[in-house]
Amino acid sequence: MRISPVDISRRLAFGAVFVVALAGVAAAQTAGGAQPAPQETPPPPSAPRSVAVPRPVEKSLKNGLRVVVVEDRDMPLVSAQLLVRNGGEVDPPRLSGLADMTASLLTKGTKTRTAPQIADEVESLGGVITSNAGWDASRAFVNVSSPKTERALAILADVVRNPVFNDEEVERLRQQYLDSLSVALNDPGSVASYVASRVVFGDAPYGHPLSGTPESLKLIRREDIVALHAKYYRPDNAVLVFGGDIRAEEAFRLAERLFGDWARPAGALPAEAAAAKRDAAAGPAARRVVVVDMPGAGQAAVVLARPGISRTDPTYFSGIVTNAVLSGYSGRLNQEIRIKRGLSYGARSQLDVRREAGPFVASAQTKNPSGAEVASLLLAELGRLGNEPVLDAELVPRKAVLIGGFGRSLETTEGLVNQIASLALYGLSLDEINNYIRNVQGVTAAEIRKFAGTRLGATDAHIVIVGDAKEFLEPLRKQFRTVEVIPLAELDLNTAALRKSAAGAVNK
User: Where would a tag sit more exposed on the chain, N or C end, judged by fewer CB atoms within 10 A?
Assistant: First the structure.
């Protein structure tokens, strides 16, 4: 799947010749008065090409650190990622954003390097270093040319093992987060996303905003950051993944030298965070229809949300193909809402798989008066997918989109490492990377219909609309018996109740 610089040059040259030839044909047709017949349908995608990623090699150090190496010698580049198996799901209830801040601060100073020194050293190597947290993991990674690997990896080990969390850096990052959040809380789309998480997961770990709330960010102290780092950043809770122009023996040697003396705490690993999904035996939570009133908003953000699946769910491939039928420019949601009706610049969906069941979200932004209509259209498309078969003319190109995106993700060493690290995080076989295309191709129309009907049911999906409520509230109430209306000033993202006070009761 990798394209060399020589291949790129050849393709560019071929493209230039093709464009010139095409222009000549067009000119000849114009001169002769002939016009090409319009093409009614695009040609079908060609058969997918197989992927052959080199087999990963791995070993575990005595301290419990798992080391995985994927050799790819096409380009003189190496990516290395240190993954910790916990992220935002372990935030304490009052301190949402703690894991994200902790990860972001790793590169802001160590016991021997200041933040500017870290940046200068990595820049002098022609590399990039960064760190962040997701829901189930925290990561630090470095990309560099292969001759500089050892020096770059020494910096990566230092930032992961020896961060100092300087007070000045903590306060600077806190202010950056607060500034970004103040902007997001005036954007209907961002607010709808935050609210949807609370509606789906309530007060469970996945319910809070990953990057925190205005209230929680102000409560986080350096001591909290130090404690989280000490608790979860340990070798027996981490995976080190190498990818690119490096031999496995050399990678293992560097791992042993730079991480081998990383002490494993005497205590056991912390128990996994409480399950983020609702108890399946209790049945689906009652549907909530939540309106956040934002007077003067230029548009309404409409979100349909419900629990989806975990990454290890046996129906994972059926799920991502089902979502591909719904999402994307040629997906059903965009076709129905944008192309046919002109109600939005784009409608999309996402099946966010995590350690526990993540959310399925379908969304669109529209003019305020059509907010209720768009909500109905989102629900209708989910229902249709669970009741009608998908024809090959639609399914084949949607699978091609998935496969093409997967192929592009492997075109860089960083992308390759991310794919392998994700498999390692969720305890999946590393060989699955070479089975991805076959698994996608094997999904049938019957499996899509079954998945949509049993796992993406529209009848218990929650609805969130953020916008100027007076423009769409009345038609929305005609569709749904109970509508919660929350003025933006009363919105509280720290709780599943979503309210700062008892004001603004249901159907106010």
Answer: C
